[in-house]
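Structure ticket #2291
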Amino acid sequence: MQLPLLSILVFLPLAGIIVLFFLDRKNHKTLKGFTMAVMVVEFLFSLPLWFRFDNATAAMQFVEHYRWLPQYGISYYVGIDGFSLLLIMLTTFLGPICVLATWEDVQHRVKEFMICLLGLTAGMLGVFVALDLFLFYVFWEVMLIPMYLLIGVWGNPARRVYAAIKFFLFTMFGSLLMLVAILVLYFYAGKVTGTYTFDLLKMYGLNIPFHMQFWMFLAFGLAFAIKVPMFPFHTWLPDAHTEAPTVGSVILAAVLLKMGTYGFLRFNMPMFPQAAHYFVPLFSILALIGIVYGALVSMVQKDLKRLVAFSSVSHLGFVMLGLFTFNMPGVQGGIIQMINHGLSTGALFFIVGAIYERRHTRMIADFGGISTPMPIFATIFMIVTLSSIGLPGLNGFVGEFLILLGAWKTNWVYAAIAATGVIFAACYMLWMFQRVMFGEVTNPKNQVLQDLSQREIAIFVPLLIFIVWIGVYPGTFLDKTKATTANFVAMMEKAKDTSVSLSQVFKGEAR
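Resolution: structure written out below.
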């Protein structure tokens, strides 16, 4: 009998929370050590998913399906394919690293912090494995509260409450519209098939009229666009990143934002394929605006954390552009770029956190020449910077190249505009690196900075390994998504209908 690996991954952190309640809150080492143990076990249980995953099939694997509320068509239904596998591995991989990063950083309300961290992990993993719309919505909302608390309780005292409330309101607004669309789908499925269900795979098979697809795509799409975040729904992100603690910023950038792009890929596009094709120009243009806007705004930032935050708007614009190409290189590039962004931007936030712990400032003007007292830090910083701008041989290049290739096959103008984002990224990242690391050490405080400790080096080494691995041999990761992507592209191509028009929406015509 095979272990229910997905359920173990989702519920092990919740079991860890229960144990944490009984541990002495004053013993910080025990609290952190136990949380680290839970995260390590999580990662170990995720490894069989990787090694036993069948690359040749697009079908859902490791499926668990149990009746939950059968009278309402609600099931505990989980499973993964190539899309969700990589995101699950990213989540479990970052778990122990994040706990290690809290060892010296978090000294206030440690028990509550670890509870929030484990609850957030459970919610994120639940989103990536859920195949029941009701179950998905539960996990989607569950992860909102611990992230809200991480920002609001352990963030920067100056504006943490404002940032937390803004994050909560933006996300909740989109979620409520998505809930309405889920209920509409539920009743439509019952009316058409005679069976009321929240089964996602059955929703894929519904022949939904275009005018309904139009509105439901927008309802789901708004929730996911806010989470990505796409322009112009991005305004919560810089505040949340800037005010969040280091680990909160890492998780937010590395995993939570991917819940938005994953939502488009898993729910929006397959359930409403005609509407997805109809909205390609709109979402491609918004993605391009995000790429260029995020890069230009990053150039003028004085705060290191805000610069990295706005760079996420640009990088996630690339992901969205790739997903909306509906071709193999574009979609695979979008998926691998989700992972690349998680590794590179997560590492950048760890870098900002390391320097903030030493100087208690994030202002670029307060630094300069710190490569002299911190050579190991400077080396790691340089590698991560080059990864973020897409240097060949590092992970960022692979994703951006595939996305530009896919975009060129769809619309060369889109590809040309997106390519300027690569140039701008090199400008703001290298300029930032130059101002922080090189030049004379004019501030006496920078002359006595301590280089990275062994604990901090241990945080960066796993990230650097995968940054190089994906850059040198991306096939290890692309092979896991190949069959799933091919099936997705074929599904979207089959549903393409150039005859649909906006007039059908307002006339209520079904196709």
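Closing remark: The two ends are 46 Å apart (CA to CA).
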